[in-house]
Amino acid sequence: MAEGFSIEEMEVGQTASMSKTVSEADIDAFAAVTGDCSPIHVSADYAANSMFKQKIAHGMLSAGFISATIGTQLPGPGSVYLKQTLTFKGPVMIGDTVKTTATITSIKEKRKMLTIETICTVDGKPVVVGEAWVMKP
């Protein structure tokens, strides 16, 4: 299994991105796995009468895309995810493509710790922003 980047191979400003188009099946699977069956996510009838007028993806589904980017791209396999802040800025709808970008903002080489800016966007507009703390043993 690949080990991703070593702490010495990374630098402030380094970035990685992934994109995923959210399907209704993704939302239903997330609801089934987590037990979050809030009707705004799983009931088209309920959601039609909401401010969104349709089912929306769970915010934590988008946060999961951040985890995937950190765990597979930057810093990659072997990373230990320690902390994440999240601010939800907008909804993700069925059919939206979420682009997740992780950018290293600081490196503490002796402690093998990274601070990473995390942003999920749809059509260039932020839907989830935050900051992650990651160890790269």
Defining traits:
137 residues, alpha+beta, Thiol Ester Dehydrase, Chain A, five-stranded antiparallel beta sheet
Distance from first to last alpha carbon: 15 Å
How many individual helices? 4
Low-confidence stretches: none
Write the CATH homologous superfamily of the domain at 7-22 and 57-135: Hotdog Thioesterase
How can the largest sheet be summarized? Answer: 5 strands, antiparallel
Name of the CATH class of the domain at 7-22 and 57-135:
Alpha Beta
| Rg result | 16 Å
If you average the pLDDT, what whole number results? 95
Q: What is the CATH third-level topology name of the domain at 7-22 and 57-135?
A: Thiol Ester Dehydrase, Chain A
Question: What is the percent of helical residues?
Answer: 10-25%
What order do the helices and strands follow? EHHHHEEEE
Helix/strand structural class: alpha+beta
At CATH level 2, the architecture of the domain at 7-22 and 57-135 is Roll
Shape: elongated
Strand sequence of the main sheet, in spatial order? 1-3-4-5-2
Please report the total strand number as a whole number: 5
Portion in beta strands? 35-45%
